[in-house]
Amino acid sequence: MSGSGCERRLGPLDRPLAEAGYDPSEHGVLTVARYYFQSFAFPNSQAWINAFAKAESLFPPGMARAGASEIAVAVLAAVQQMRAARGSGFRFSNPDCPGCARILSPHERQFMEVLVALRRGRRSRAHTAAMLICEGNASETFLVAMSDLAALTGALSPGQVHPVGAQCDRGPAVS
Questions:
Q1: Whole-angstrom Cα distance, residue 168 to residue 127?
Q2: How many CB atoms within 10 Å of residue 77?
Q3: 25, 31, 66, 118: which could form a disulfide with 152 (CB 3.0–4.6 Å)?
Q4: Superkingdom, according to UniProt (predicted)?
Q5: Where does residue 117 rank: exposed (0-12), middle (13-18), buried (19+ CB within 10 A)?
């Protein structure tokens, strides 16, 4: 799973990660999520351990409203809720390969769009993105998990680069 000599090229729906416009928190969430995706795709890799280790380096104290371990657990909760709603596979880039890690897959982009929209107060956009990544299945619990994650990483106003203390909108309570 390492990428020395990686020859991966952009697919028709892939995008360069550098063009996604993610702030450091969003980029960190994607990286941590990729390790969880890897752990589920290749259980023997135990990549979930790397998810926690990477969270510690990507979310130093004071960067977000929560500690690195809380954020890592919140990312896992969001990934699990998405997995429960989806019926098909999830295409992701290998976080251990520098060449692959520079590529944003369409599934990763939809997953991240939910977080980005929630952090910027675009609730309708978040709901649409959640519906797409959950393949039209019930996405309410995924949205709650992503809203919790957005609150932990801090809300952003459009055009803002650093989080503020506002809590993200979780929408109606799910019973």
A1: 14
A2: 17
A3: 66
A4: Bacteria
A5: buried
